[in-house]
Amino acid sequence: MHVILIALVSLLASAVGAIAGIGGGVIIKPVLDSLGMMQVATISFLSGCTVLSMSAYNAAKSLLSGDRQLKKEAAFPLGAGAAVGGVMGKYLFSLVSALFENASRAGAVQSACLMVITIVTLLYTIKPSILPSLNVKNPVIGVLAGLMLGLISAFLGIGGGPINLMVLSVLYSMNLKDAAQNSLIVIFLSQLASLISTLVTRSVPEFSVMMLVLMVVCGILGGAVGRVFNKKLSSNQVRIVYLLTIVVIILLSIRNLIFYLG
Q1: Per-residue pLDDT tens for 1-42?
Q2: 3-state secondary structure at position 134
Q3: Could you give the CA distance from residue 126 to residue 129 in angstroms, rounded to a whole number?
Q4: In whole angstroms, how far apart are CA 239 and each of 171, 175, 176?
Q5: Phi, psi for 234 (deg, rounded to 5)
Q6: Burial 3-22 (b: 16+ CB within 10 A, else e)
Q7: Is 113 left (phi over 0), alpha (psi -120 to 50) or beta?
Q8: Rounded distance between C-alpha atoms, residue 182 and residue 77, angstroms
């Protein structure tokens, strides 16, 4: 029963992630946390691999098809910074985890941080005028912003997140629909670097190979479905999906925080 549930969560989260550009891990991670059937580190690893497969599919489709939604001058500097930030985020999480004898306390830290970030993003999405809308040309600024995004994503084990879209909207004045597709490039590069770092440092947690294969396949299928819907939906409809997803993430984060501290 748990296997079927995890497959459905991975598939639906990846589809929603591809539509709204939030990766899917930001849903998979808190949901699997709530099930309590795996260690925090294992959940983060499997969630990251699922998001990597979904974002790799979408990135490849965008690049090969010459997708007009893809803004390389924004996506690649952010992605380059996110790749470095992804490695730093993994290292930071290992440091935080080492501070606690009980691994669930590290999960509580992740849940609290995710809750705060998603609340801030929700406020911005409802009232975007609280932050300026820029048109950044300097790639250095993009790299630095990507560094922050990659660090946060890897530390939280979510493989991306709502904050990506906020940064793309603020720095590059993108609407949510375009920001969603460019966010997936950033997520792909961040997760790829994070996975390579995990393999090189031999810090791969124990996991079921069958579960990994299942979640990766669901990630690719979900990414394909989500990409089709992103193309068909209007920018306002993507915004609605995005807002609903953020609310769900906040509720899950609160639930998991209470669970880990209990």
Answers
A1: 678 889 999 999 999 988 988 877 778 877 887 777 788 788
A2: coil
A3: 9
A4: 18, 9, 6
A5: -80, 165
A6: eeebbebbbbbbbbbbbbbb
A7: alpha
A8: 11
Structure tokens at 135: 């048109």
In the block, residue with structure tokens 């590290």: 106
Tokens of 214: 């299942």
Q: Which of 110, 82, 118 is nearest to 94 (CA)?
A: 110
Dihedral sign for Cα 151, 249, 44, 174, please.
negative
Alpha helices per DSSP H over 66-131: 72-98, 103-126
- Position 185, amino acid: I
pLDDT digits (tens, 9 = 90+) for 207-234: 889 999 999 999 999 999 998 998 888 8
The answer to whether 166 touches 125, Cβ cutoff 8 Å, is yes
Nearest to 74 by CA among 175, 153, 159: 175
Which DSSP symbol is given to 85? H
What is d(CA 24, CA 160) in angstroms, rounded to the nearest whole number?
8
Q: Which two tokens stand for residue 189?
A: 């590069």
The residue count for the chain: 262
| CA 155-61-17 angle, 5° bins | 40
Q: The whole model's pTM is what? A: 0.84
Which tokens belong to 32? 């699997």
Q: How high does pLDDT run on average in the chain?
A: 86
**Cα–Cα distance, 224 to 226 (Å, whole number):** 6
Give the model's pLDDT for residue 94. Answer: 81
In this structure, which amino acid lies at residue 245? T
Mean pLDDT computed over 78-103? 84
Tokens found for residue 131: 């932050």
pLDDT for the residue 159 = 61
Q: Which of 39, 153, 194, 190 has its CA nearest to residue 107?
A: 39
